[in-house]
Amino acid sequence: MKIQFEEYTSTWVEDYRNEERALIKTLDGLFVSMDHIGSTSVPGLGAKPIIDILVGLKDETYLDRVIAPMMNSGYTYFKKYETDMPYRRLFVKLKPITDTPSPEIIDVDDEYNTGEFFVPLVNIHVVVKDTHHWTRHIAFRNFLRTHPDVKNKYYELKRSLSQQEFSHHLEYNEAKNSFVKENEQLALTWFQNQAERDNNS
Fold this sequence. Notes:
Elements: H1 11-26, E1 33-37, E2 51-57, H2 67-72, E3 76-78, E4 89-96, E5 105-106, E6 118-128, H3 132-146, H4 148-161, H5 169-175, H6 177-200
Parallel strand pairs: 2-6, 3-5
Antiparallel strand pairs: 1-2, 3-4, 4-6
C-alpha cells in the first residue's frame, strides 16, 4: 500500500476547529488544554490528511475517565498501544472503506493496519499536560513552524515515502522515525530555551 500524501490546505485548520468544538462538549470538565498538532498543523507542510489533536489533562487520574465519553461519541478506543505507551489514551475517528463498521475498541491483541478496512480521519492523543509527552508534541510542531529548512526536509521525506509501497502503516512510521526523533530532540532544546528567555524577559 501507499501512504496518502496531500499538499497543505488551510481547510485543515477549520477541520481541527470543528473537531475541537465537538470535543469540548464530549470532554466537558475533563481536560485543561487542546492543541492542533502533527503535520496538518504546520502551514506549508504536506501530510496525510489526518487531523491530530493533543488533549492535555490535569493529572493521570483523568486518563481513564475520558474513555467512556470518547467511545460514546463514536471514536474508536485504541487500547492496542498502551502497553508501550501507558501515559497516553488514543482515540481515532475511523471511516470504513468496506461494509465492516468501525469497532468500538482496538484491543491489545487485535490486528490493525491503516487503510485495510478503515481510513483514519482524526487522531486524538490524550496525555497529562506539561509532561514530557505533552511538551514534545508542542515543541516539534512549533519547531517546524519556525524552522522552514527543517520543515522542507520533512516535506521532501514524507513526499518521497508516499511514493513507496509499504505492507503496514507501522513500516511507514519506522521509515521516518530517525528524522522525527533527531529533530524532536532539537525541538525540545529549542523550546526549553525559548521558555527560559520568556521567563527572564
